[in-house]
Specification:
This protein is an alpha+beta fold and about 675 residues long. Helices cover about 30% and strands about 25% of the residues. Helix 5 runs antiparallel to helix 6, helix 5 runs parallel beside helix 7 and helix 7 packs antiparallel against helix 8. The C terminus is likely disordered.
Length: about 675
């Protein structure tokens, strides 16, 4: 919990909160109540889940006995300054703010109805005397990547459809927004509020001023212990139950996500936070994973890496299988989609590793659930993926004469280091990247293991796996004690020190001796390791960029050139644990080193979230997305693996996870 004696605007605005609805929609703001991003809003609805997201409700201007509780930045001024009345903020598990004025105390809780584009804001009188509450919603109607300006076309035509319900059409032909309030009187008054300034957008070199429309306000007298609820929804079903009933349902759902008997509250809180990324995809009628909030959609590579912890290690079998099928439906030329566009359209296939990560996830899925029927179902697709890569597919992805996997042509950026500024590839890694070939070797060995389980032909893939191992060791191990980042056999070597070599240590099927692994680990720890993640480039490299800031070009130039990535920290931890045989001592070292990420999760950036990136020179304030799927998911995987390994070592029973229904045909 955060307690404030003299709350500062910058202090309370630097921290954010996020709640989601399982569709890709969300509500998010800062602790001060001031929006600092175009992505902030009380109702950001996914019209084609999890895509086509629109901001409909920007915020609420609140007054308690005439004292303003809200805050905004306008040109040259903060107005009003309601943040000064903020007494505390907590996530337990819903975001709850407490405001105190001379003669009143009010709590505010925000949550969404799971599976529905609906946000409920609850205000409860925590004082000893009745208070007067004025609540004025500010509305917009825009894609969440854009900003809204006053326009007569948007008249927000309003119908009062009941004593406590409104139906609002932002413009002619628009889907209506339903607004409900549990108590009080509605006073209609239309007005534009102009030039809200969003500081983070300004820092990012983007347009940063927005207008919003007021259509009136709710005025309510609230007795001690009583509450007033505002409901914003695109779905009239939100009014089929009381706000308190919806809240009880959501709290129960969140409680079910927490492991029974868990001794580690951090793990329990991570599992709750991780659920925010799991969404229903309307086009496939199945589950998928949002790569990050606020602005990412569901990406193939990110989904595969994140779900290793979000759904597989955490025992959510049905959801894991559904996600795997979601992407397999779009298998084309041996490749899985890298991205589903926000506005619909055909998936994009510009990823060399999404399909290889699919093998790793399926391997861990089988280790967790022993679902041989699902293996039997998808095994032919595994063959198609391998053959597609061997014989060649888009972007010149193919097997070299040496057995390595090659990819790239033109301006294509196929690995996770994919930043490009105009025609300039910031991190050109065309050829045979190290992590791609570690994944390639693992995909082949996983296929061989599954073939053994299912008694299938191996089609010479056993010979190829040995060939790949030999070539990997020949071309990637260098005399400096670490691995080359990318090679073109017999043509070029890029020995830049980057974290991609880590996967040769952490993936299930290793390629190095223990001595070689420890040498690589020493270089990673010396050059790349930080408590919040791994640097994407050694600080000794002349292209190292220590600060991620500025306009789009400046940020893209730094994105993979030194910037710290949080999702790599858990991968480092897995490699470290594997190297030390998951000893009790190594597990304690990992837990101790986790302290910085744990503090970040609870105390900075998005409260109960882990950011995408941090500065490379001096990792501190969160950068990029405030809540990133693979950052959270992989940390869950590390903690669960240590829990299981620790239980095995001591003879204790492992923590029971709430996994939901088991597949009917899964081997028990």
């Amino acid at each position: 919990m955060f307690r404030f004696d003299h709350p500062d605007f910058e202090e309370t605005t630097a921290r954010e909160w996020l709640v989601t609805n399982g569709l890709g929609g969300y509500a998010s703001a800062t602790l001060s109540g001031a929006n600092t991003r175009r992505y902030h809003g009380l109702l950001v609805a996914a019209l084609d889940p999890p895509a086509n997201r629109k901001v409909l409700v920007s915020k609420i201007e609140e007054k308690l006995n005439g004292f303003p509780l809200s805050a905004n930045r306008f040109p040259g001024v903060i107005h009003p300054e309601g943040h000064q009345y903020l007494e505390s903020f907590e996530r337990d598990p819903l975001p709850r703010s407490v405001y105190r004025i001379p003669e009143g105390c009010l709590s505010k809780t925000v949550f969404m109805v799971h599976g529905m584009n609906a946000t409920i804001v609850s205000y409860r009188n925590e004082g000893h005397s009745a208070v007067h509450l004025e609540l004025m919603p500010l509305l917009v109607f825009r894609d969440f990547h854009t900003l809204f300006k006053a326009d007569p076309e948007f008249d927000f035509y309003t119908e009062q459809t009941g004593t406590n319900r409104l139906k609002v059409y932002p413009c002619y032909g628009a889907q209506p927004l339903f607004i409900g309030f549990s108590d009080g009187e509605w006073a209609e008054k239309q007005d534009w509020y102009r030039n809200f300034e969003y500081g983070v957008e300004q820092e990012r070199g983007l347009d940063y001023r927005e207008d919003a429309k007021s259509i009136g306000a709710v005025n309510a007298r609230v007795e001690p212990g009583e509450a007033v609820h505002l409901v914003f929804s695109l779905d009239q079903r939100a009014f089929d139950r009381t706000p308190e009933a919806w809240k009880k349902t959501e709290l129960s759902r969140l409680q079910e996500l927490r492991p029974k008997g868990a001794a580690d509250p951090f793990l329990a809180d991570l599992l709750t936070a991780g659920d925010q990324f799991i969404v229903s995809r309307q086009s496939t009628e199945s589950y998928s994973v949002i790569a990050g909030y606020h602005w990412f959609a569901d990406w193939g590579r990110d989904t595969m890496i994140a779900m290793r912890g979000l759904t597989v290690a955490s025992g959510r079998q049905d959801i894991s299988r559904s996600i795997l099928r979601t992407f397999l439906k779009y298998l084309d030329g041996g490749m899985l989609p890298n991205r589903f566009p926000e506005q619909g359209g055909k998936p994009e296939y510009n990823s060399i590793d999404a399909s290889l990560w699919w093998f790793v996830v399926l391997y861990e899925y089988h280790q967790q659930f022993r679902d041989t029927d699902f293996l039997e179902e998808v095994f032919p697709k595994l063959t198609d993926i391998l053959e597609g890569h061997i014989h060649g597919t888009r972007y010149r992805i193919h097997e070299t004469d040496e057995g390595l996997l090659f990819g790239g042509e033109g301006r294509s950026q196929l690995t996770w280091m994919d930043a490009r500024v105009g025609d300039h590839a910031v991190t050109p890694r065309q050829g045979c990247p190290v992590e791609i070939n570690a994944l390639w070797y693992n995909a082949l060995n996983i296929y061989l293991e599954f073939a053994g389980v299912l008694n299938k032909e191996v089609f010479g893939f056993d010979v190829l796996a040995k060939k790949v191992r030999k070539a990997f060791r020949q071309y990637f191990i260098n005399e400096k004690g670490y691995l080359n980042d990318a090679v073109v056999p017999n043509e070029s070597i890029d020995d830049t020190i980057r974290p991609n070599q880590l996967y040769a240590l952490s993936l299930p099927f290793g390629l190095l001796t223990e001595k070689e692994s420890r040498s690589v680990m020493a270089v990673i720890e010396q050059q790349l390791y930080t408590g919040l993640g791994l640097r994407s480039l050694s600080p000794d490299h002349p292209d190292f960029k220590g600060i991620y800031q500025g306009d789009q070009r400046s940020r893209d130039m730094a994105y993979h050139q030194g910037t710290v990535w949080a999702f790599l920290w858990p991968e480092y931890a897995l490699a470290r644990l594997k190297l030390d045989g998951y000893s009790v001592k190594s597990q304690q070292v990992v837990r101790d080193k986790m302290a910085a990420l744990k503090a970040h999760f609870y105390e900075s950036g998005c409260v109960y979230g882990i950011a995408e990136i941090f500065d490379g020179a001096d990792p501190g304030p969160a950068k990029g997305c405030i809540q990133q799927a693979w950052s959270v998911g992989m940390l869950i995987k590390v903690l669960l693996e240590m829990t299981q390994k620790g239980a095995s070592a001591t003879g204790r029973k492992p923590v029971k996870r709430n996994s939901g229904r088991k597949a009917k045909n899964a081997a028990q």
